[in-house]
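User: Can you predict the 3D structure for this chain?
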Amino acid sequence: MNNHAFNLRDTSIVKILAVLSLSVICGILSVFPMVLISSFLAIGVIILGVYILRKPDRFIYLLIVYVLLQNFFAIILSKYAGNTLAQGFILTKDILVYLALLIALIANYKKYKFIYPDLFAFLYLCVLGIYLTVPSDASFFAKLVQFRQLTIPVILYLLGRFMIVNFERTKTFLKFLVHISVIAVLFGFLERYILGDNFWINLGIREFLTSKGMDVWAYGSGGLPGNFYSYDFYSIVGTPLRRLVSFIADPTLFGQFLVFPVAILLFTKLFTKKLRSIYLFILLFGLLSTLSKGGMFSLGVALIYKVFRSRYRPIGYFLLICLYIITVCIINNASLFSSLPAHLNGIVHNIKLTISNPFGLGLGEAGNFARLFSENDNELLGTGESYFGMVLGQLGIFSVPFILFLFSLINFYRKKNIHNVHTKEFFILFAATLIGTVCSSVFSESAISFVSSGLLFLMSGVMATNKFNLKYELAEKKIK
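Assistant: Here is the predicted structure, written as structure tokens:
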């Protein structure tokens, strides 16, 4: 009885001491708010680290959320914590990806089975490594920025390949991407129709652009990015149209980002018919509200490919002819659209540069970032607004490994070498979306980036491993 009373008294003393200690800690931290914020961040990082270490493929969840929210939090940090911390927050994502790739490579290299896209991906990285170290007129910072931009698709693809995620788990990640995309579009409607431009101005969008060295793009009202409004239909409606930007704070990138989740809903049956219809309506309306020509073009190409792979192939030819006619009409009337001439010039000008400079101008010498960070005269640089043009302008004929990487990856999914009704729709999904993204990248530099299509390349790597493993599993079953 006495022992029981002692234990109760001992427990009560421990609780009182714990409460007092916690009060003292909170009191100290309240005097130093940055210490308090840092402490909470440290605790959050530790919890997140433990969560991922228990099941490494959970890193994909983190990356999906990070890609969608990085700009939103970076905007807040730019205003209240300084430019260094804001850019550090964005850079952390890249560091985590390279670190994850290194860990996955070490942990899973014995399980890894080599395929052709991998060969061209590694070869392309070698080419970029050489171009990064070769002396040129561009500053090392400009070269490093462009090196990061050019490596994004292959690095994320290789990360997906080495993570060795099974098929059922892959479907879970695709469903999560759709769910979070719906949330992003709903927030986009909120910021577009209710919160308005002042929300972004007060949040710190101008400071964010300054932190990235992009003041020249903050020519909108109150320091908003110029692309928040579209002037493409000014001659028709007589006023610029506000575009949906959501957490990404960039309508072009957000439009490209939505192509993949929309395609997931259109090409697969991961959701019930009712939920699929609701989500599809929300995401399609969101995509249209971004007024992203590249995003709509990518989705259009993907849809035509899907029709070609169905029993309605004759309709596919009709749709392809329609898309060709529409594209020709738009190009012939490019002056009616505010940004289209620049996109067309992006590919044409860099092709001319490649003819006169077969080995390219070098890293940091072509594209939008080159014009922002290069110390050379803009007249000597390759133009931007075309991802393919930007690659050609910098690497010339050595851009071939990248082109072969893209085409071999598409061909990998296009082949009908697995007769499995449960996986076929996913292979068509990736082939169609990759084709759409590649076609769009000819005219849009933002079509291939970490935010716009990074998750597509990541999951392409993940699904490539699924497809490769399934092929051998089915072959073994036939032998048995």
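Residues 30-479 form one domain. The CA atoms of residues 67 and 451 lie 6 Å apart.
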